[in-house]
Amino acid sequence: MRDFLIGILALAVAGAMGCAPGPWIRTDYAESYDFSKLVTYRWAKPKPEAPAETMPGPKVSRMVREAVDRELQAKGYRLVPEGEAADFLVACALSVEQKLDVRTIRTTYGYGRAWRHAGVRVAYEPETIVQAYYEEGTLLLDVVDARSQEAVWRGTAQSRVDRIAVDEKVRARVQDAVARILEKFPPR
């Protein structure tokens, strides 16, 4: 019975850990930079990537690129073709890391008759440690001044990765993360 209860608690904790409210968003920028002069952009040439096992597939990368284009164009920025001058470049990096979440659970509390003693006793069982492996994805967007080649703004989203999600669910999560990152661009 005790093992059954521990199993149920472990499943409940693992399920609760997988229900994160959304990506964790951070942004940073060069405070002295004049973002009001930015009108046109293009994608930066990709740099050598991290090891292949940490990268999501090309389908997710394409989803991110489409979402970024949609958000920036909705803000009035114009994408220019390769070879044309742009005010800023957009660089993107995606990675996936395996993480370990460790939780301690007190499995039982109880009251009952004390054995061989009159009165009530309080029973405590040892704590149970529950471990859950999960994958955490990071999406990093950089805005780089095209003339100076200096990064002037960075937005990051981190969230748990659901490898078995269908394309539409992944697309919705990517769109949400990109929208929440670019909600803070340009800084005010």
If you had to describe this structure to a student in words, what would you say it looks like?
- This protein is of the alpha/beta class and 188 residues long.
- The protein has a single domain, classed as Double Stranded RNA Binding Domain.
- Helix content is 26%, strand content 37%.
- It contains three helices and eight strands.
- The protein has helices spanning 2-17, 58-74, 167-182; strands at residues 24-29, 40-43, 78-79, 88-106, 109-113, 120-124, 127-145, 151-160.
- The protein has a six-stranded mixed sheet. A two-stranded antiparallel sheet has the order 5-6.
- The protein is elongated, with a radius of gyration of 24 Å.
Question: What is the compact description of this entry?
Answer:
With 188 residues, this protein is of the alpha/beta class.
Q: How many E strands?
A: 8
Q: What name does CATH use for the topology?
A: Double Stranded RNA Binding Domain
The share of residues in extended strands comes to: 35-45%
What would you call the structural class? alpha/beta
Low-confidence stretches: 1-20
Distance between the termini: 58 Å
Let me know the largest β-sheet: 6 strands, mixed
Give the class-level CATH name: Alpha Beta
